[in-house]
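ingest -> validate -> predict -> emit
validate: passed (alphabet ok, no gaps, 194 aa)
predict: started
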Amino acid sequence: MNGHEVSFIEKRPQSLCKMCGKCCRVITNTKYTYEEILEMANDGNEYAKDFIKLFEPYQSTEEAREVDADIVDNILKRVEQSGEINPEDVVFYKCKYLLDNNLCSIYEERPTLCKLCPSSGWVVTPPGCGFESWLFLQREEDMEKVRKYKEELLDLKIMKTKTQDEKLLQKIEAVERKINLSIDLFSEHGSQYW
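emit:
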């Protein structure tokens, strides 16, 4: 977990959770296929082991849609907008431990994966999620941060045109690399366009 994610989790107001169970009833992992998650779990990856322990796949998108069409459609819309994944390749999952009253049957012993949810401002939340507005503000903060980084890059570019000092140019280029790394943290969310 990078420093940005840790900072996000530390300031996340858990009291916003409405305990509706929607985020446990229908979820997806768009970074890895189910087979990849199984392989990662077999290789000892803790995230994957937690994921497999908690979730089982629905047999189809339609089965997941029967449970909560709003969540499925919201996720598929975001996936389609990203253009990174074919929506037909998305697998939906359900938590094995969610009770009918929307409480967790293993809450006291729940894995870290659950404790960290939502783990970033960029996760797709169910419509009406208590975190929805707060997550929107977090995304706006991230975008503003990236815009400031880009302004700093412009300033550095101007500085480079005004000096011939090799040591200073090397320092400027080192700072540029560091700033670009910070911007790249958000590349999967479109930071190149902010």
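The beta strands are 27-28, 55-57, 92-95.
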